[in-house]
Specification:
71 residues; mainly alpha
């Protein structure tokens, strides 16, 4: 009888441990996902800024070319 009670307690502790591990894994997975989202957002912002700089450069070249044509 004592052995059965001990086995039940051990099973309960194992289940609690598995549940804690699953919750921890979920939190870690969420942290990784959030980190990756931030990286992707920063990359998109950098690419967008770079693209805007290229457009600005093209506009400046167009203005220079137009001024040369007027000259």
């Amino acid at each position: 009888m004592w052995s059965a009670h001990f086995d039940d307690e051990m099973d309960e502790l194992k289940m609690q441990s598995k549940e804690r591990k699953r919750k921890n894994d979920d939190r870690n997975g969420a942290k990784i996902e959030n980190t990756l989202n931030v990286i992707v957002e920063n990359m998109a912002h950098f690419i967008n800024q770079r693209h805007l700089q290229q457009i600005q450069s093209i506009k400046q070249l167009d203005i220079c070319f137009a001024l040369l044509l007027l000259y």
